[in-house]
Automatic annotation (TrEMBL):
Assembly behavior: Component of the archaeal exosome complex. Forms a hexameric ring-like arrangement composed of 3 Rrp41-Rrp42 heterodimers. The hexameric ring associates with a trimer of Rrp4 and/or Csl4 subunits.
GO annotation, biological process: gene expression; nuclear-transcribed mRNA catabolic process; rRNA catabolic process
InterPro entries reported in the protein's UniProt record: ExoRNase_PH_dom1, ExoRNase_PH_dom2, ExoRNase_PH_dom2_sf, PNPase/RNase_PH_dom_sf, Ribosomal_Su5_D2-typ_SF, RNase_PH, Rrp41
Name this polypeptide is given: Exosome complex component Rrp41
SUPFAM superfamilies: Ribonuclease PH domain 2-like, Ribosomal protein S5 domain 2-like
UniProt source species: Acidianus manzaensis
Compartments, as annotated in UniProt: Cytoplasm
EC code: 3.1.13.-
Domain Exoribonuclease phosphorolytic: start-end pairs: 24-153, 156-221
Enzyme class name: hydrolase
Gene that produces this protein: rrp41
Pfam families with a match to the protein in the record: RNase_PH (PF01138), RNase_PH_C (PF03725)
Annotated function: Catalytic component of the exosome, which is a complex involved in RNA degradation. Has 3'->5' exoribonuclease activity. Can also synthesize heteropolymeric RNA-tails.
UniProt xrefs under CDD domains: RNase_PH_archRRP41
Amino acid sequence: MLQIQKPKLILDNGLRLDGRKPDELRPMKMEIGILKNADGSSLVEVGNTKIIAAVYGPKEMHPRHLALPNRAVLRVRYHMTPFSTDERKNPAPSRREIELSKVIREALEGTILVEQFPRTLIDVFMEVIQADAGTRLASLMAASLAVVDAGIPVKDLIAAVAVGKADGIVVLDLNEPEDMWGEADMPVAMLPSLGQINLIQLNGNMTPEEFRKGMELAKKGIDYIYNLEKETIKNKYAEFKEEA
């Protein structure tokens, strides 16, 4: 049987396979209001990873007996399109997609002021158009932007990035080879203006010193991403102002 050997993730010149330094982010692009039929929507691109998110609601809950008297119900679906990966993916939801839908719902729910919309439903859909590492966090950010685009009040935007370890070096914003072959992967999501972490996971091993360095790198990346998110929203409403 052919065995694939682990590639060298950090080159002799200290750069990564995609030419970045260990503390550099991949190129990012964000847009909101991209779908006319949704109440809120967004597109988030992180490197070659592309996510579209759509929000519907708050709306009446059906069946009504599932409605909660003191808050809105948040229903979240994370889904990878069949053409999002190298090999065609089965369109039916996988265990991983169901698990990530739950992880994203729990992280997103803590940011939305759901108590302002009792007995209603908010639907959030995320479609992974192209997967190239970091789909969970890109989806979470896309969902957060789409919720704001729908006019639903939130405590803060979610900004997120993964840090990890590749060939013994702590790196920011893992690419696909680092995600596959690296020694550690730690997604971190924050509400930056509140200084709160609302998602953190760790796969692999890090020493306490590597963990501290990883958190410093994550904070640096999140500060940049948060400004990009705010600029994306500001630009949309600047367009409305010009049209008026």
